[in-house]
Input
Amino acid sequence: MIQQELDLRERSVLMDFFKPLANRTPDTQYRDRLVQILHNGEMLKTTPQGIGALTCFGTLRPMVFDLRNGVPVITERKLISWRQAVAEIIAFINGARTCDEISSYGCRLWESYREKDVGLPFPPDDMGPASYGPAFHDFPMPNGGSLNQFEQVLEQIRYFPHTRTHRITPWIPFWTARGPNRRVNVAPCHGDMHLRVMNGRLHMVMWQRSGDLPIGVPHNMVQYAALLLMLCQVTGYEAGNYVHQFSDAHIYENQISAVRELVRREPRPFPVLRLDPGVTDLFAFRAEHFSIEEYAPHPAVQIPYSP
Output
């Protein structure tokens, strides 16, 4: 059994597991979730963003992506900033906390928060000790010190691959709740992960607390798929399913007309995401180690952002 497992892992590292373009099936899951919110979402006039939102809470079906069918980079519109999304997750797993630190990895998606004082006891461009980077990389331990969650999970996967406890969370409850103990500028919206090794393949479920389907979720789809590929490369497992689950999924009122245009477009096959095979340390990956091939999306669509 051990030798069989090793053989599977060696084979997965050497082979190109993506299906050829002609065999990759166009995936409608993202478009179907947009349609579900348009048809079944409840319009909430009161949101933290000050604008109404069609919302499905707990009723949106998970999206299940077998990465052999391509990496979920949406094709209903051109995702111009896919590399920034990958840079963002790389910044987070390396503990980036401030706007400057996040930008240093090639992600400018947090620039709108620079110097935006939200009344917390740290500088405005500091996202806080309960933001994604510190939670992933420096999770506070009960007796002092901190835990690098990805480092711990990698060690578990190497030495106890078949356990069901490969879990990572960005949520530090005593610092994320509204009130005097809050220590985060933006409470993490995504990143609760559960990984599982099954028959030589590494699978990931990612649960999203809050998801802006037109803008935020496409970035999350590509960045967590990329993260699964990174984890596979450094552990030697073939990539399995990437499962994207939702709690609060929404389309803001000012995005509805653009979304109606998106759902009229037929999805096209997902592209292939290539990783530099020379990178064997998870924390050494950088955005320039990734490239997309065979990406043929519909034209870009301007969609309003509701921060």
